[in-house]
Structures are given as structure tokens and as C-alpha cells.
TrEMBL record, chains A, B, C:
Membrane topology per record: Multi-pass membrane protein
Domain Glycine transporter: 6-81, 92-165
Keywords: Cell membrane, Membrane, Transmembrane, Transmembrane helix
Localization terms from the record: Cell membrane
Transmembrane residue ranges: 6-24, 31-52, 92-110, 116-137, 174-194
Highest rank taxon of the organism: Bacteria
Key word DNA repair present: no
PANTHER family in the record: INNER MEMBRANE PROTEIN (PTHR30506), UPF0126 INNER MEMBRANE PROTEIN YADS-RELATED (PTHR30506:SF3)
Provenance organism: Oryzomonas sagensis
Any one Pfam family match given in the protein's UniProt record, by short name: Gly_transporter
Family that this chain belongs to: Belongs to the UPF0126 family.
Name the UniProt record assigns to this protein: Trimeric intracellular cation channel family protein
Transmembrane helix as UniProt keyword: yes
Predominant subcellular localization, coarse grouping: membrane
């Protein structure tokens, strides 16, 4: 699964960059920027491992994730003006991370014998909890709860993986197809500015 | 303990509804409303199981809680205007959930050999952490920390259960009496608008 | 390690007082003040134990921490005007807590076979996560992410302990030197108003 690991690190770097940028926007100091980058990149997977009881969490078994997150956050802190040309590619890397994290999370939850709902929830959480923590630490309502088709892409990918793993499709193909589904849905959502319905709650 | 399970589901549904309503009020999209409903309904029990080391948490052993929470949240999202007549009964269901969750949490903590303080704290946390998470995700100071006699009712019920379990009272009666105490205190607090004292901290 | 335990309790009391004061400032009721005191005092160590898989967390094995935190918070709630003369000493106690918590956290993480990054991160988290939770529950951006040299002192102490534990220095001396480093750095930072660099992100 070397490809998956590469994607995983790419996604981790993209998430760390998004966290570090959020810290800079909130006028945090360098420590705050590093914490936001770290939490965004590894928060989802860490929460997943806590809930599955896979202790210590993955970040302590392979510290690559920690060093990578902090290195990326530090680069963003130092050179964020000169890295502005990366904003556009970042959307792609972020989508790759999203797809990869959903597949890793759902797959791991199924290996831990969780049911359909639990496994898909774990996949979505792996991909989205880091971003929620980032927004909470910025004292903002998590972006994912009111903006953009972000979680729905994850839900679709997680559910698809569940189905494919129970079919004749080879495991690697199932993982690839599910991740690709998340990535494509996410990029289409960005491209066409899709958003989810809201309740019409305002009283006149 | 079939009655307890019924009460548990009733409380879960009431908590999910309160979470979903909070999401609608914050203008979240349908995913956000589902997440808030889910988190409010199952957050307290999940945190309790994490702290007790009962992994995976109850929600993954019996997915009924997950499906129920999401179904209720979805109904609230779709029909919240037409469900306005349920606001009043919701207070009662919410109180039933409060009492049930306190008893379940304290009882479980005692079974895991926690001491008096730890067990009562677990009971209160089971009943209140979901609502705190709901408020955090709405970027608000948790309601329970500054308004209403909500936690005190839980504290009283948890402490009572601790005492009764060490007395000659049969276990089922102990659970029922403790839950009823929470429910009655909570409803009296709503009815008579009780609130806890604050520190007079304003400087002139 | 009787000295360490004494320092630990002193730090716990100082952290509880800082949490309770934050609750009073946010106009919380007595329950809210107790919760903020408790969470600030024990949040970091509890999160550490969750992540290390040392379940149940230390607070349930020795309830002294719980009783002490609540007692201090209650005293602050009742007498915070008359305790104003303690504001200055509180800075010292808080620094003692910081140093002690870093050493305990890093030491425990190393005993659980974590690597360099993981162990230092656990030390910093033990000392700072409680304060972050306090600020989150107050719906504020955690102070530590944008103000003061607080985390850096912890980082230095944790890294130092890692190095010393691998050297010929006796364990007790290693702990003492590391804790003292944190405390002195912290007090110097307060005294000379040090702060960390920020990214110059404002566009003209």
C-alpha cells in the first residue's frame, strides 16, 4: 500500500497547511500556528484511534506525521506570502487528503468490526474532525457544518467502500474507487460551488 | 431493564432534537444539523466510555442510538415548523433523558470501580457533555455553565444513586428513585425558573 | 518522589484557581465556575492518559486531584474579592504547576515508549491542554495560541528532560532541572513581557 501511504502524507501536508493558514489569519504566534497545523492534520485520525481503542494513536507509532505537519506549518508560517501560488494546488492536495483519510478511516473501522453506520462515521470523522478542531480553536463555528459539500463527499466515499468491500471487487480497487469518488465529488463541489440545503428557519 | 432502555432511547431522541434545533438556529446546512443532533445525543455517553476504557463506546455496539439520533435530527430538519407543537413535551422528554443518563452513567462508573466523586462526575458528564459539545460547535459558551439548574439536578441524582446502591434498597428501585429525583428537580427548576448563584464580580 | 507530588498538588490548585477566575469573569454560575476550575486543573493530564491508554485516568485512581480542584474553585467563587492579594503569588504557583506537569507528562510518555516528538508533545499537552479547554469553554481563542511565552517554556523543559534521561544525570536531578527550566523561563517571560513572533499577514 505504498501509494496509499504517499497519498496519506500528501493529505497530511495539505491539512497542516490549511491549519497553519487559519492560525496566521487569526493572528496567532508561531506556536499557535504550529498547533493549528498539527491539530488539523492529525486530529481526525487521533480521535478515530481513541474511539477504536487502537492506543497509542498512529501518530506515536510513526512520528513521520508529526514531523511532517510541523515542518509544513513552519514553512507556511515563514513563507506564506511567497507560497501564495500554492493556494490553487492546495485545493487538489486537500481533496486527495480527504479521499485518502475517508478510505483509511472506514477501512480501519471495518477491520475493528464496526457496523455500517459506525464505519462510515469513522471515515467521515477521520477526514473532518481535524478541520473542526481547527475551527473550534479559532473560536468559530466549524466551516463544515454550514458551508460547502465537504462531508457529503466523504459520506458517499465511506458508504461506497463499505459496499465494495462486501462485493467481488479486489480490496485495492475498492479503496482506489472510493477515494477517487470523494476527490472528484469534492473538486466538482468546489468548481460548481455546490452547497447543501438549509432549513428555512427565519421567522418574518 | 427494559424500562431503562426505553427511557434511554426517549432521552436520546429528545437530546438529538435539541441538538438539531440548535443547528437550525445557527443556520447550518443539513449535514451540520445532523452532526449537532448526533453529538448532543451521544456525546456524553461516548466520552464516558472513553474515560472508563469501555472501548468501542456503546454507540458502536448497538447502532440503534446512531440511527435514532440521525432519524430524529432529519425529521427536525425537514418539519421543524410543523413540529413546533412538540416544544412543550420536549422539555419533559429532555428531563427523562437527563435522569436516565445520570443513572446509567453513575451506575456504569461504579461497576468500573470508580470512587464517589468520579462516579457522580461520570453521571453528570453522561447527561451534560453532549449539550456542552453542541454549544461548543455553535461557538457559544455552554448554556449549562451559566444558566438554569440543570447540572445540580444531575449532581443530586448521581449522589443519591451512590448512597442508595450502598443501602438495602433493591438496585432497580435505587435507579428509579434517583432518575425520578433528577427529572422532578429539573421540571421544578423549569417551572419556577430557578437559577444558581453567581459571583458578584463586576467592579464599579 | 514526595516533592513531586507536593508540586503536583500546588500546580493543580493554581490551575484550578485560574479556571475558576475565568468562569467568574464570564459571569458563570457556581456550577460553571467549578467545571472551569476542574477542567483547567485536570484536563491536560486526563487527555494525556487517554492518549497513552492509561485508563482510567489518574484522577480516578487518586481522587485527591478532584477534591482539591473543586475545593479551590469553591473558595475562589466565594472569596475571590478577598483573595485578590493572591493574584501575584498565583503567577508563581502557576509556573510551578507548568514545570511539574511538563516533567510528569514527558516522563510518563517516555515510560510508555513514545518517541522524542511524541513525548515532548505529551509533556506540553499535560501542562497546556487544561488551559485550552478553559478558553474553549469560555468561547475564546486559547490564550496560549496567540499570547505569551508559555508553551515555549514547556517545549524547552520537555526536550531537556528527554536529553537528560538519556544522559548520566540521575533521574531525580533530571526531573528537577527540567522543571526548574520551565519555571524560570516562564517567570522571566512574565517579568520581561516576552512574546513569540507572529506572521505579518495583514495585507495593506
Amino acid at each position: 500500500m505504498n501509494l496509499l501511504y504517499t497519498f496519506d502524507l500528501l493529505g497530511t501536508a495539505a491539512f497542516a497547511a490549511s491549519g497553519a493558514l487559519a492560525g496566521i489569519r487569526r493572528d496567532m504566534d508561531v506556536f499557535g500556528v504550529l498547533v493549528l497545523g498539527l491539530v488539523t492534520a492529525i486530529g481526525g485520525g487521533t480521535l478515530r484511534d481513541l474511539l477504536l481503542g487502537d492506543i497509542p494513536p498512529f501518530i506515536f507509532k510513526d512520528e513521520t506525521y508529526l514531523y511532517l505537519s510541523v515542518a509544513v506549518s513552519l514553512l507556511v508560517f515563514l513563507f506564506h506570502r511567497r507560497l501564495a501560488f500554492l493556494t490553487h494546488p492546495l485545493t487538489y492536495f486537500d481533496a486527495v487528503g480527504l479521499g485518502t483519510f475517508v478510505v483509511i478511516g472506514t477501512h480501519k473501522a471495518l477491520a475493528f468490526k464496526l457496523g455500517f453506520f459506525g464505519a462510515v462515521m469513522m471515515g467521515v470523522m477521520t477526514a473532518t474532525a481535524g478541520g473542526m478542531l481547527r475551527d473550534l480553536l479559532s473560536a468559530k463555528v466549524p466551516m463544515i457544518l454550514h458551508k460547502e459539500v465537504y462531508a457529503s463527499a466523504c459520506l458517499a466515499g465511506g458508504a461506497l467502500l463499505y459496499v465494495l468491500q462486501r462485493s467481488a471487487v479486489p480490496p485495492d480497487a475498492a479503496a482506489l474507487i472510493s477515494a477517487a469518488t470523494v476527490i472528484i465529488l469534492r473538486l466538482l463541489a468546489v468548481r460548481y460551488n455546490w452547497s447543501l440545503p438549509r432549513a428555512a428557519h427565519r421567522t418574518p
